[in-house]
Amino acid sequence: MHRHQEQNGAGKAAVPYRRPAARQDAPVPPHGASPAAAALTALQRAAGNAAVSRVVGNLRGRSDGVAAHSAGPAGPVVQRAPSPAPAPAARAAAPAVQRAPADDLVHDPKAFLSHSVLSLDFGLGMRNRAPGLPLDHQAFANRLGRWNQHWFVLVPDARRAKEGRPAYLLTPAVEKYVQAFGDSDDLLAPLSGHRDLPPVLPDQAYLASFYVPYLRGGTAGPDTSVGHSRIPKDAGKQGHGSEFVFTATMNGCAFAVTGDAQDKCFTAWHYQSPSALSNREPAKNFRRDRRPADWFGPEEYESPDQDGLFETTNMLWNGPAGWEVLSQETSVSAYDENDARIAAVRSRPLTMGSGQEAAYTARIYVGRAQTQLKEFMRSLAQARNAAGNTEQQRTLEQHVFKPLEITMAAEPLMLAGNADFAALIGIAVRLKQQRAEALQKVKDWLAAHLEDAAMTHEGGLLHRRISPEKLAHRREKINILLGQFSDRAWIDGLLEEATDHPADRDGAPGSGAPAAGAGAPPA
């Protein structure tokens, strides 16, 4: 499964919650450190501790009103994947009352997600639960968004279950949909009375949760192109499990929330692939016009060092402390999709009112900056490998590689934690200027030295004994590096979004009344 290609819902006894033990094979950055830590490490490797100290000192010099972490008032809580449970003590306490897995999820979803892999492959769940039922599972999953009530069950997932680590498939309870909508739905009507249709169970056997559909394709015209649902703010009173809002698997999409803080309902959106090239502009316009109160994207739910396949189960939960975003990141083997392990479990409060627009905008562009930095570092490693002998490497390192790396590695740090559009505008302007100055300086040096015939002497950049093929390879790798460094698309996007956002014109950081003509959230 690749980024921006997502599963469309088709495709333990609980204990009082404790932070699970760390797993050595699943490193997760500490609370609030996901974006900044990766950039700080890259900067440290590039320029040493002195440069890091200068950047940190600048960050500390910011006003006290700027949030230390851009995820919201409380920031995300990140838990590492748990180790297998230890063997019980010789004198164990009386066994706890056994609950059904769905009851465990309702009782303590954070604890449940920390020790049970939860997959959102609706089609597989329905096939496993009723293998003889003549149902087009993909068509059913695509139709979920049409129905205004939903019921789910947890089906054991034998593919991914391991000793001491259960795995489940969140699965639509087809029999409840047949009962509720079978008389008027051509997909469901033939299933009524079928011998392989599971019998209808008591209400407590189901999760009567809310659901946000996932749509494929472009996102222009979000009312019809982006999946969304209206959610009552008092969710949890509508039945067992109604405090949850489920959606399809995410590995590049975003959860967004719109609506006035005083409304009795809010709109939850599953915004598909907002960082995909074709969706960047519509996503930017959506944030400007709809002004989401919150935005939870891959910059928050994906580990910075995630290079392989992954699936993320994201949900909204109206718990004792109010609405929260819950996220389980699962790493999947590239060789066997059944080999999956919990990489991280994250949670943070869900923002309902205005005031966080600039903070999540900063997070979005920190994520894009880190994505470009990761790609740049791969190209940099290739350029270094083609740099020649020790003296040539040292010369290129000093005048080409280091200046570019230091400039780019510092950029996410300059953005992280900002919660003011005016500050974001100023940072974007400085980033463009720094990129231009560093690039011009490197190009001037290369023009004066790399093409200088005097440099063909022993030990020079164009060592007289180097083959034309190796020389061409070196130049190619350096040119690729310069091309990537010249790409300032995300910086231009940040400057445009921060400048155009209504909150910047309201005079209140990250908040204010919608601009005239701005689209209103759907009723």
Automatic annotation (TrEMBL):
Keyword Coiled coil: yes
Coiled coil (UniProt feature): 366-393
Composition bias, Low complexity: 76-96, 511-523
Keywords annotated in UniProt: Coiled coil
Keyword Coiled coil attributed: yes
Region (Disordered): 1-34, 64-96, 499-523
Protein known as: Type I-E CRISPR-associated protein Cse1/CasA
